[in-house]
Amino acid sequence: MFAAIISGLGEGAVLALLAIGVVLVYKGSKVLNLAQGEMGALAFLIAMRVLGHRTTLAAGIAILLLTVFLGAIIGIVMERLVMRPLVDRPPVQGTMATLGVAIILIQFEFLMGGVLFLPEGQIDYPIATDQIQTAGSFVLRFGGASLVAGRVIAMIATAAIAVGLYAFFTKTKFGLGVVAATSDGTVARILGIPVKKVYRFTWGVGGALSGLAAALVAPALISFVPSTMTFLVIAALAAAVVGGLDSVWGAVVGGLLVGVVGALARTYIAVGSIDTVAVLVLVVVTLMLRPRGILGGAGAEI
Asked: Is 178 helix (H, G, I), strand (E, B) or coil?
C-alpha cells in the first residue's frame, strides 16, 4: 500500500499543477478551461521542434523553460482572442469555446508531426522516453515505489507554486487586486482594479502551469502524442472539483488525492479502467457531501 501511495502522490503532483491552472482560470472567469492540457502540449511540441531531441540535462532544462514560456504566451493569446469577447456571456459559452480551442490545438499538434504515420500503417512516436529529457533521468526509489525525475520535480514544483501563489494573493497589491476582481468584477472596476490585466494574468499563469506539467510528464510516458494532455486534464478537472474550484490549496489536495485513489484502485482491484471509476466515485461522493469541494468557498459550486 505504501508504494502505491507514493506512486499516487507522484502522479497527483502533475495533476495538481494542471488543477491549479484550472482553478486560477475559473477564479478569473468562471470558465472551466477544457484546453488546459493542450495549451501545454502544443508549447511542449514547439519547444521540442525548436531545440531538438537532445538528451543532455542542459537541453532538458532549456526545453522545460521554453515550454513554460510558450505555455504562458498561448494562454495570454487565448484569453485575448477567444475569451475576452465572451467575458460578459454565460460561463457555459466560454467553457464550450475552450473545448473548441482544445480540438484546434490538437489539430495543430498533428500538423507539427506529433504522430508520424508510416506507410506500413504503423504509428511511430518520434517523441518517446529514450529521446527526450526535460527534467533529468534519475529515479528515486522509496518504500518500494519508483518515482522518475519528472514526478519528483512536479512534487517540489507543486509545493513551491502553491506557497508562492498564496503569498502573492495575500501579500501583494496586485495579488489582492486579483482576489477582488475574481470575487466581483463590477466592484473591482469601480475600485479601479485593472480587470483585463487580471484576466490576462490568470490565463497566462494557467498556460505556464500547463506547459510545466507537459514538460514534466512527457519523459515518464511511452509516447507523447496529441490529446495525451487532454486525458490528464480530465483527471485534473476532477481534482479541482474535489479540492474546490476557487482554492489553490484545494487544487493541490485534490490532485494528490485523485492520484492516490487512482493508484490504490489500480494496485488492489486492477480491473479495466478501475482507476477512472474510482476517481469518478470520489468526485460524486465529494459533491454529495460537500458541493464546494474540500477547501472550496462560496464561489466553488458549479
From this structure: helix
* pLDDT digit string, tens, across residues 256-271: 999 999 888 888 887 7
Residue range 33-67, pLDDT digits in tens? 999 999 999 998 888 888 876 556 677 788 889 99
Does the model's pTM come out above 0.85?
Answer: no
By the 10 Å C-beta count (0-12 exposed, 13-18 middle, 19+ buried), 112 is classed as middle
Helix (H) or strand (E) holding 146: strand 145-148
Main-chain dihedrals φ then ψ at residue 127, nearest 5 degrees: -115, 95
Phi/psi class of residue 124: alpha, beta or left (left: φ > 0; alpha: ψ in -120 to 50)? beta
Kindly report the three-state secondary structure assignment for every residue of 243-257. HCCCCHHHHHHHHHH
**Main-chain phi, psi angles of 134, to 5 degrees:** -105, -10
Task: For residue 113, give the amino acid letter.
Answer: G
> How many residues comprise the chain?
302
